[in-house]
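Revision sheet: C-alpha cells.
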Amino acid sequence: MATTELTATTFEQTVVDNDIVLVDFWASWCGPCRQFAPVYDKASEAYPEIVFGKVDTEAEQALAGAAQITSIPTLMAFKKGHLVFSQPGALPQDALTQVIDAVVALDVDAALAEAEHAGHSHGQPDEG
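Predicted:
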C-alpha cells in the first residue's frame, strides 16, 4: 500500500478508524524530508496492514500546529487512536523498521491501563 496524504479533514478519522497509523510531517523545501520520503514509501509497501500517512506542513499549517510539530520531518505513530511514538528527524530504513515493529508489538491497552493505574492519567475523557 502506498502512502496516504492526510489533511485536517481526514487526519483524526484516519487515526481513529485504523489500528496503526504512521504519520510523516514533511515539506517540499526540506532536504531531510526528501531523503526520508523513499525510505517511508518503501516501508509502506513492506507493511500493507499499516496506514502510512503524510502531512504537508506547508499546506496543513493548522494541523502541524495542532500536532505541535517544531521540526520536520517528524514521524508520529498512533495505535488504536493513541499517540505512541513521536520523533523528529529522518530515520534510516533499519531504524524505521525498528519503530514499526515496536509499535506493532506494543500492547497499547496494557500500557494505558498501567499508566492509569500509576496515576499518570491526565483525566482526559474519551471523545465520542
